[in-house]
Amino acid sequence: xxxxxxxxxxxxxxxxxxxxxxxxxxxxxxxxxxxxxxxxxxxxxxxxxxxxxxxxxxxxxxxxxxxxxxxxxxxxxxxxxxxxxxxxxxxxxxxxxxxxxxxxxxxxxxxxxxxxxxxxxxxxxxxxxxxxxxxxxxxxxxxxxxxxxxxxxxxxxxxxxxxxxxxxxxxxxxxxxxxxxxxxxxxxxxxxxxxxxxxxxxxxxxxxxxxxxxxxxxxxxxxxxxxxxxxxxxxxxxxxxxxxxxxxxxxxxxxxxxxxxxxxxxxxxxxxxxxxxxxxxxxxxxxxxxxxxxxxxxxxx
Length: 301
Ligand SMILES: Nc1ncnc2c1ncn2[C@@H]1O[C@H](COP(=O)(O)OP(=O)(O)O)[C@@H](O)[C@H]1O
Ligand SMILES: [Mg+2]
Description:
Elements: E1 2-3, E2 6-7, E3 26-38, E4 47-59, E5 63-67, H1 74-82, E6 92-94, E7 99-102, E8 109-112, H2 126-138, H3 146-156, H4 173-184, E9 193-197, H5 205-222, E10 225-229, H6 235-238, E11 243-250, E12 253-260, H7 265-272, H8 284-292
Parallel strand pairs: 5-10, 5-11, 8-9, 9-10
Antiparallel strand pairs: 1-2, 3-4, 3-6, 3-7, 11-12
The chain binds adenosine-5'-diphosphate and magnesium ion.
């Protein structure tokens, strides 16, 4: 099955033979990302493969999800794509033929880690946090633009203005995630990429939907390529994404078993594994994640 030029299916995404970054509006494309680390659990000098030759691409101005059960390599892939994990960092090594193409060439990106409360001082008010971030990102000459930029960013992220005088630790989990996003967006020039590691984990389904909806608006309005790992979105949240990239654990490391828009999951399963979708009530993404957990990285029940 072909989806926007990417071949879906276990082990098959390596057949991706683009880059046609210009004509297809592709902002990031990766080929044969093969990443291995020294195995902690082994006394010998064994290597453990975390990502097994995965390939794919995302288009600019879209909201994209990296899905998969725990330990499939979502955070590792995000780190590699965002450049925060170099070719030989984090105790690991990228294979020599692993390639990443980004557009524009000198793209700017921000990374929002999973545990935002660990990076922000709880006693500071939201106003102080955002004013500091604005000063750091724009310098003192832009000070007069701070108030309007803060107000505009708060409104895009559906954060009420009255929150500005509240300490960070008294905000709800959903608000805290969006404040961490707002902090990164304090530069007057929007970044080309925004990477987020599980921004909805630990949130209730309504807050999770709200957070992802803000990110969708951000992607469309400011033409940012938003790439987020996400654990188990409900159907409504899932359909906010333009493109999904589903990782599964295999004996040889994490592999991609599906890439495409959410509406393609059902036809994909129907044509590749019709016996898996006997239960028409459960959303197809649940079936796909169950397959992702089966441990062999192949499309078997
Ligand atoms: N530096 C490392 N050394 C050894 N194992 C690692 C290292 N980094 C990640 N791993 C292992 O790789 C797997 C994938 O990790 P991760 O990318 O964090 O997965 P996810 O975000 O999907 O939960 C996990 O089993 C993790 O224990
Ligand atoms: Mg992770």
